[in-house]
Amino acid sequence: MAHADPKTVLESASVVAVVGLSTKPYKAAHQIPADLQRRGFEILPVHPTADEILGVPAVPLLADLEAQPDLVVVFRPPSEAAEVTRQAIQVGAEAVWLQLGITSDEAEALADEADIDFVQDHCSMVEARRYGITK
Asked: Running along the chain, 135 residues long, what does each successive block of 10 average in pLDDT?
């Protein structure tokens, strides 16, 4: 199921875990999830040290989430994408999204093997705006 259509992935997701969501408002890894939150997506911050981001309690690992995410958006280096994808599969996510500039053949293969949707090298905010997706 690799190479899913970005529009379809965003339309079918409501609960979005963001791995690498930044605590710094000037960074894209903060601004993009904030935009998705304003569009009505439920954002679940995953950050190793933050207690709260975007007004939502943060957890250090995907496995620590209380809610099951539909989609896991990744703001981490490509070298970490495969491990994040493994964790996303373990928590039952339906899709993994590597942000613009992030690609991983290994992560894609893992997603394909698990039969979950996979998007890479696309900006979730740009795609949500392009298609006017709100929740």
From this structure: 84 97 97 98 97 97 96 97 98 97 96 96 97 96
**Those residues with Cβ within 8 angstroms of residue 104's Cβ, 6 or more apart along the chain or in another chain:** 78, 81, 82, 85, 98, 120
Give the DSSP letter of residue 69: P
Single pTM value for the model: 0.96
Is there a contact between 62 and 84 (Cβ–Cβ < 8 Å)?
yes
Q: What is the rounded CA–CA span in Å between residue 30 and residue 53?
A: 9
Pair type for strands 56-57 and 52-53: antiparallel
R_g (Cα) of the chain, nearest Å? 13
